[in-house]
Amino acid sequence: MNLYPAAISNTMLCSAVLIGAVLGSFYACAVYRYIAGQTLINPPRSMCPDCGHQIKWYENIPLLSYIFLKGKCSACEVTISHMYPVIECGSILWAVLLLFAYGPSPLWIMYMFFGGLMIVASFIDLKTFILPDIITIPGSILAIPCAALFTNLGWEGAILGAGIGGGLFWSLRLLYRGLKGIEGLGLGDVKIMFMIGALAGPQNLPLVITVSAFTALCSGLIMMVVDRKREYGSMIPFGPFLALGSMLSILYAEPFWIWYLQG
């Protein structure tokens, strides 16, 4: 018996899980190497950052290797960062949810690509407070034609969304700096909003920004409760919350607006 919607077969679901896992492993590698100042091709093989042990192929199977190794390097037994399974699980979840939302379509491929960019950028931002130009600039450039060609936004909607998203955050950045004399939003947030705005379009941008701001506020309050030493106004990276708002919009904006307008 097929437990999934009629358009989604078990084979499609398994394929989405496999693709999500493999891409998640690549995303985690990209995050680690960027933070470590390495490139995707140098060093040619992944290694333990503590002892230099070269990772064997069977130690690099997404999720399974982490479980079998009990989260430790096989050579020195230092703890492997939880970032790896978290990113891999996130990538699998993204692939599966997109499959249910769009089926095996060009939109699935497009949103897998941009979702991957946002996952990598988010984890780099969490670690470094930087949204890398190598992700945000190409992503912004590609988002407009992709959204124009593969969604119902068209060129006008994609360009308008990018302009409003990036322009709004650029204005907020200047306003905050003028009022407070310090940076409240980084340029990386502005650049990634060009990409997010193009994908969301002007109609869904308010939804993206509202969800992003709300989740950032809730996370900040939770961190203040957990860490009593954290002061009000302490910086938190906003990129991950923008990515979360964008990804939720990609998945659920259409059913949300249908529910809202009918209610």
Explain what the structure shows.
With about 260 residues, the protein is an all-alpha fold. The chain folds into two domains: about 100 residues, no CATH class; about 160 residues, no CATH class. Helices cover about 70% and strands about 0% of the residues. The protein contains eight helices and no strands. α3 runs antiparallel to α4. It is globular.
C-alpha Rg (nearest Å): 20 Å
Instruction: Give the structural class.
Output: mainly alpha
What is the percentage of strand-forming residues?
under 5%
How many discrete domains?
Answer: 2
Characterize the main sheet: none
Instruction: Please count the helical segments.
Output: 8
Number of strands: 0
Helix content class: 55-70%
Shape: globular
- Following the backbone from N to C, one meets helices and strands in this order, namely HHHHHHHH
Low-pLDDT stretches are none
CA(first)-CA(last) distance: 35 Å
Whole-number mean pLDDT: 91
Question: Would you spell out the secondary-structure blueprint of this structure?
Answer:
Blueprint (H helix, E strand, L loop, with lengths): L9 H26 L28 H5 L14 H20 L3 H23 L4 H18 L3 H27 L6 H40 L12 H24 L1
Characteristic terms for this protein:
single chain, 263 residues, mainly alpha, 8 helices
Structure summarized in a few sentences:
The chain has eight helices and no strands. The protein has 263 residues and is an all-alpha fold. The protein folds into two domains: 1-104, no CATH class; 106-263, no CATH class.
